[in-house]
Write a structure and sequence with these properties.
alpha+beta; nucleotide-binding; ATP binding; 6-stranded antiparallel beta sheet; EC 6.1.1.4; globular; aa-tRNA-synth_Ia; Rossmann fold; RNA-binding
RNA sequence: GGGCGAGUGGCGGAAUUGGCAUACGCGUAUGGCUUAGAACCAUAUGCCGCAAGGCUUGGAGGUUCGAGUCCUCUCUCGCCCACCA
């Protein structure tokens, strides 16, 4: 037996494949195209994580499979470089982010090459290179010119160390009492801050409607819709001492049940009416206190509020002109709806809870159903009562009538609201794309002209945020001082973009990575887009997927891209846990170092294991024994070559199993079930390893089948079997066609028919082609076990499913 | 609280349209090879039972000749969102 030396084999073929760009994706090829995309990693200075490998291996195997099935496959890779991970790493190492990134991307690329990933490296991209972010900046200007990027005072998560953070970057602290940053674990609190935001809600309806054009998993579509959170209702204006307070409600039919108004602590009407509020000191104190509460504290605490003494709201329709108390309450969110609600305690759980606490009236305006008579509030539909001329109507009809009425009075209108908020787009940090805007001396804002793009990020040794939380670029006067289009002194915007700016459109750049005139040539985009299958993190199915769809639609409206949906199908991957079943982390000591595993067992074993471990979408623990078994499989296959001989006599059984293996693997891989495809490889291996000899033809077919999983070993054995003495790209196994199978040869003639009696498996009888139902019945009646289990009873009915099963009903 | 998903051996997991549940791998046991172990090879392995036989896909019902798969109820776990008016 020859010793299997994975290091030697891998180094040899790796060098040949990548120097010849074996996995080239060809623009405008005659072959049908497939664009298989896996979310790009953000290199953070360490070796590629084993979790990354799990995320990429199945998509990569799939891309190889498609290539062998005759597709022109684009399976690209790049680096999402901007953002905190690189900055934190650079700080720790005492180097610049630029230096950190250049080392990390090299390490990551090496790791991917070591894994044999079939990537067209001519299309590699890096979001932090000026040639790339020139286009990110250009796209931002498109958004800005269309009024979709604007400045707003926003309540933001504020971190002394990191500046402003997005919701997604903030986590509850370990003790549950506060908030910390996702990276670094620094304390975080709320603060108002002027920010650039993207008006994603402007596209909300299209983002919902166009889900009809794509083929995502229904659960992904639902998640997106929930995230957008579209709700129909009405805006109703209440007069509060001469000031208008607008509320949003989904239940205008309960308008006559309003017994109080509740407004958020940030509501502007408080400031306007402060002269009239007799307890203004108490109110201010409450507002001040609520500012420092974390969400969790607000949640566990009973709802609180303070009534604005001395001011009342007037009901817009009620003829009695009842005075309605107004309260400030921190359960009212500033940035949802209008920041004010009409309190209807009889028909809303939260309003009820609040009303009880503050002794507010509870007025029923919809009849409670019989079985709900004991409950204090009822949120369903029903007959409207106590509502003047609307009484007696069904609540759903009443809803429309009331909206019509307030519309005619100019006191409101039907309206739609979304949970989706404008997304904060600026960061007060160094390591990001500079926002390409200039503040003129008169305060107006002007875009940097296209010939002056990219606005390059200056290299700065001191790139950390100061204690004031302002962008480090603020300190760099040389950089941020400029002149405007009229030649007057001006100042650059010093905020930078968030990480997701570059990763919003990266998949477009793979299509035309070296273009200097446009982000990507429209004809090429037309050829490659949409992405056929997008693999990524389950946590990105809402935010990332939604924001990048938004970005793409804006580009479509601008005529930069030819279609309006970027991804046809989305597949989300599970997680790889540590051996102990917990999340891999340094503190648990269960982190797997892929470099060690690669050294020990080789890439083919690691790839096969990552495919075999389970379905792509699930989460499971790392099991070193499983990897070991796959390493054994690779070795066993390698040594099978000694069985190959021209005159090996193969049985019909071997032909059948080979055909069945091809059929099963083809179907499984089509459905991305790589784990069971590996089982098929094992089954076939177990069969042939006990044969006296294998025909060359069978052997080579088998090698093609294993090639997507074990590309190195397959190539080595293929070249050897074909006696190719010199490397030639076209002779690579990876450019061969996937084998076809003969359906007839797959069919296994069953000779033992399972026999059920009254639905329970009792026996088996031997059958042949000649048997029909009558001869079968004869056989059954002679079978000892059948006789025994019938116990002398008469057979009432025979259900015979040919070649499957027979069931006797006694 | 809301949404989504999942419950199958000791473990990871297989099971076209309902048709032999537990493929494949791990683990375990026994044997071989070894001074011994590791590694490797062979065989066995859902559970109870000496056996005949019985039981088994979270639980309870139902449809069906036949249910892991379809229907109703219920329990448990995971993920995401969460005072969203």
């Amino acid at each position: 037996m020859e010793n299997y030396n994975h290091r030697q084999i891998e180094d040899n073929w790796k060098e040949k494949w990548f120097s010849d760009n074996l996995y080239e994706a060809v623009d405008f090829s005659e072959k049908p195209k497939k664009y298989i995309l896996a979310e790009l990693p953000y290199p953070s200075g360490k070796f590629l994580h084993v979790g990354h490998m799990m995320r990429y291996t199945v998509p990569e195997i799939y891309s190889r499979f498609l290539r062998m099935r005759g597709y022109n496959v684009l399976f690209p890779m790049g680096w999402d470089c901007f953002g905190l991970p690189a900055e934190t790493f650079a700080q720790k190492e005492g180097i610049t982010p630029q230096e950190a990134i250049s080392k990390a991307t090299k390490d990551y690329k090496d790791a991917m090459m070591s894994m044999g990933y079939a990537i067209d490296w001519n299309r590699e991209i890096n979001t932090s290179e000026p040639a790339y972010y020139k286009w990110t900046q250009k796209m931002f200007l498109v958004l800005w010119k269309r009024g979709l990027a604007k400045q707003q005072e926003m309540p933001v998560w504020w971190c002394e160390e990191l500046g402003v953070l997005a919701d997604e970057e903030v986590l509850p602290s370990k003790d549950g009492k506060g908030k910390i940053s996702e990276r670094g674990g620094y304390p975080v609190k709320r603060k108002m801050y002027r920010q650039w935001v993207l008006d994603i809600p402007a596209y909300a309806d299209r983002l919902i409607d166009d889900l009809g054009k794509v083929d995502y998993e229904e659960s992904v579509k639902i998640a997106q819709k929930n995230w957008i959170g579209k709700k129909d209702g009405a805006l109703v204006t209440f007069n509060v001492e001469g000031e208008s307070v607008e509320v949003f409600t989904t239940r205008p039919d309960t308008l006559f049940g309003v017994t109080f108004l509740a407004i958020s602590p940030q509501h502007p009407v408080i400031e306007k009416l402060k002269e009239k509020i007799s307890n203004i000191n108490d109110v201010s104190e409450y507002i001040e206190k609520s500012k420092n509460l974390t969400d969790l504290e607000k949640q566990t605490k009973i709802k609180t509020g303070v009534q604005l003494i001395g001011v009342y709201a007037r009901h817009p329709l009620n003829s009695q002109m009842t005075k309605i108390p107004v309260l400030v309450a921190d359960y009212i969110l500033t940035d949802y709806g209008t920041g004010a609600i009409m309190g209807v305690p009889a028909h809303d759980e939260r309003d009820y809870e609040f009303a009880v606490k503050y002794n507010l009236e509870v007025k029923k305006v919809i009849e409670f159903p019989q079985d709900k008579n004991d409950t204090p509030y009822f949120t369903g539909e029903g007959v409207v009562i106590n509502s003047e001329e609307y009484s007696g109507q069904n609540s759903q009809v009443c809803r429309q009538d009331i909206v019509k009425k307030i519309e005619s009075l100019g006191l409101g209108k039907g309206a739609t609201t979304y949970k989706l908020r404008p997304q904060i787009f600026s960061r007060q940090r160094y390591w990001g794309e500079p926002i390409p805007l200039i503040y003129k001396h008169d305060g107006n804002i002007e875009a940097v002209t296209e010939e002056n793009l990219p606005v390059e990020l200056p290299v700065m040794k001191d790139f950390l945020v100061g204690k004031d939380g302002k962008s480090p670029l603020e300190k760099n006067m040389e950089w941020n001082t400029t002149i405007d289009s009229e030649g007057n002194p001006a100042k650059r915007e010093t905020d930078t973009m968030p990480t997701w700016a570059g990763s919003n459109w990266y998949y477009m750049r793979y299509i035309d990575p070296h273009n200097t005139v446009t982000p990507a040539d429209v004809a090429k985009l037309k050829y490659w887009l949409p992405v056929d299958l997008y693999f990524g993190d389950a946590g990105h199915t809402t935010a990332h997927l939604l924001y990048s769809r938004f970005w793409f639609k804006v580009l479509y409206d601008e005529g930069i891209v030819p279609i309006d949906e970027p991804y046809m199908y989305r597949m989300s991957g599970g997680m790889l846990l540590g051996e102990d079943g917990g999340k891999m982390s340094k503190s648990r000591g269960n982190v797997v170092n892929p470099k060690d595993e690669l050294e020990k067992h080789g890439a083919d074993a690691l790839r096969t294991y990552l495919a075999f471990i389970g379905p792509y979408e699930d989460t499971y623990p790392w099991n070193p024994k499983g990897l070991h078994a796959c390493a054994k499989l690779v070795r066993t296959i390698y040594n099978l070559k000694t069985l190959v001989s021209e005159k090996a006599d193969e049985s019909a059984e071997t032909t059948r199993i080979l055909n069945k293996t091809i059929k099963n693997m083809t179907e499984m891989m089509d459905n991305l079930k790589m784990n069971t495809a590996v089982s098929e490889i094992m089954i076939f291996t177990n069969h042939i390893k006990n044969l006296a000899g294998i025909k060359k033809e069978t052997w080579e077919t088998f090698l093609v089948l294993i090639a997507p999983f074990m590309p190195f070993t397959a190539e080595e054995l293929w070249q050897e079997s074909n006696n190719y003495s010199k490397w030639q790209k076209t002779n690579s196994i990876h450019l061969q066609m996937w084998p076809k199978y003969n359906e007839e040869l797959v069919i296994e003639k069953i000779t033992e028919l399972p026999v059920q009696i009254n639905g329970k498996l009792r026996s088996e009888v031997t059958i042949s082609d000649k048997d029909n139902e009558d001869t079968l019945k004869q056989k059954l009646l002679q079978d000892e076990r059948v006789i025994k289990h019938l116990g002398g009873k008469e057979i009432k009915k025979i259900i015979y499913v040919k070649d499957k099963i027979v069931n006797l009903i006694a």
